[in-house]
Design a protein that fits this description.
The radius of gyration is 18 Å and the shape is globular. The chain is of the alpha/beta class and 253 residues long. It has two domains: 174 residues, Alpha/Beta hydrolase fold, catalytic domain (Rossmann fold, 3-Layer(aba) Sandwich), CATH 3.40.50; 61 residues, no CATH class. It contains eleven helices and nine strands. Keywords: Hydrolase.
Length: 253
């Protein structure tokens, strides 16, 4: 029996599964969950190597998708709607190969292998906190500031800190595995074309999903459409949750 993902279920009705991105946890899409749980059952999960879920040396999209399928089978959930952000969006897309999905919403992610390493400074900051053996969140923030310029990114990361029995601040996510598997995280294995009803929501100011990715989308998704949220970056659901929710609700009706 494989290890099971940590999860939270709220609400009643058709099930929507929310899948967070890199360095996140099941609370990251909370703004969406708080609205959607009013008329749906919302399943929020911690992916492997994140949050309260198990740690593993393996971290690739097929394995992560299998983890989600195992959880859905355990909970006896079928024909679900999947919403995934960033890395979670790639997990969501990989799920189309393993199970029947009613509809798919991908937040600011393309089904492609990215060439750019966007997180080297983040990994440097995470490693520095580990080496500094910080004893408080404020200490960890000070260490992170030497590597990560944007305060919002530092605040986001420290949501995954906890104090160990030794009194040292530690990361809930598995820094070593995420770093060693980073090429898998930014990579992508082309999937067989799927006809699952799919909505790609792009942050207008983000370059994770661009016109040059259109061919790759059409190659793998025969029933996909795109929606742009203007004046938002990669964290569109946090920046403009009302607009993102409006697009989601219009799509999943």
């Amino acid at each position: 029996m494989s290890a099971q993902l940590n999860y939270k279920i709220e609400g009643e009705g058709h099930t929507i599964v929310l899948i967070h991105g890199l360095f996140g946890n099941l609370d990251n899409l909370g703004l969406l969950a708080r609205d959607l749980r009013n008329d749906h059952q919302v399943l929020s999960i911690d992916l492997r190597n994140h949050g309260q879920s198990f740690h593993s040396d393996q971290h690739n999209y097929l394995e992560m998708a299998r983890d989600v399928v195992n959880l859905l089978n355990t909970l006896e959930l079928t024909d679900v709607t999947i919403i995934g952000h960033s890395m979670g969006g790639k997990v969501a897309m990989a799920l189309t190969q393993l199970t029947t999905i009613r509809q798919l919403v991908v937040l600011d992610m393309a089904p492609v292998a990215y060439q750019q390493r966007r997180h080297d400074n983040v990994f440097a900051g995470l490693q520095a906190v580990i080496e500094a053996k910080s004893v408080s969140r404020s200490e960890a923030l000070t260490v992170l500031a030497k590597h990560i310029e944007i305060d919002g990114v530092r605040q986001f990361l420290t949501k995954s800190l906890f104090k160990s029995e030794q009194g040292i601040m530690e990361w809930r996510f598995n820094v070593a595995s995420l770093l060693s598997n980073y090429s898998q995280i930014i990579g992508w294995e082309l999937i067989d074309k799927t006809s699952v009803k799919t909505l790609l929501i792009k942050g207008g100011d983000s370059d994770y999903l661009t016109a040059e990715h259109q061919a790759a989308v059409q190659q793998q998704f025969s029933n996909a459409k795109a929606h742009v949220i203007a004046n938002t970056g990669h964290w569109l659901h946090a920046e403009k949750p009302a607009e993102v929710l409006r697009a989601i609700r219009k799509f999943i009706v």
